[in-house]
Amino acid sequence: STCDEEKISNAEQKKKMHTCSACSKQYKKQRHLRLHFARKHTNKDDWSHKCTECGKVFADQEILQRHKLSHDKTYKAVCQIGDCRKEYKSTSALSKHRQQAHGINKPPKENRKKYCCEVSDCDANFSKHHLLKQHSYQHTAVPPFPCSKCDKRFLTLSHKVRHEKIHNGYSCKMCSINCSTWSLLRRHIATEHKEVNKCDECGLSFKQPSQLKQHLQVHSEKRQVFKCTKCEKTYVNKYNFKMHFKIVHLNEKKFQCTHTGCNKIFAYKKSLKTHELIHQEDYVPLPKKTRCDKLSCLSRITGFNHEKALLPEVA
To answer: Topology of 226-309 in CATH?
Structure first.
């Protein structure tokens, strides 16, 4: 059978593979085994390849060189296939795009490696080795992934990895502290390494880097504006412009209130949920918000104070 042929080819291929002496993982290339061993089986305190830009330390020079590209703002990995000129910050991201969008270096399904179950009368096969090990539980009733620190065993690889972090703790990449839980690490980063996305031009700060990036268009000499051809309204955000056109000019509203006697239709699901509150027996209207001098997030991003623009001029 096809699966029997796969078992023979898999056995032949195993002889050519490079096996990790610590965890028995196998790699086709010696270089990949070296990188794996450096990252997974060496003490982080012994890592000596340090980035001069951010201070991060790595297990191998090759990994460090790959990381340094993230600091090079001019570096762009460009897809050269056909007319596609999509740009990516790393070669790994470009390789993923080439596989998913263009099918490059991605073998057809019938030629992809299969991991077949070696139990007689079982023709199950899998694309990943850890899925085959997970399947073995059906025959042995023994969870196939043991913890390297204690006697616990797990059905899936992800559960094993998550559990082992309890023994190792969660290390902060920006300092030497080690937290016992993920939530404590998140709290530590939020308080000790709070990232401030601040505009160098006007001093405004934002929670998200994407908001700062959008805001920086305010200070640029050339600013892209999307103008509606129907009513001449302008938008600095393409998504907002598209939603305006669909809702106002095409009247695309698909969220309808199902309450008896109410036929209101809304463009957004969130608007419908807010509206449905008025049909509840214990509904109490929220007090109207009073205007204040604090800029809204939208105003800070776009550079236009919508609230003050609505206020009448003072003589």
So the answer is: Double Stranded RNA Binding Domain (3.30.160)
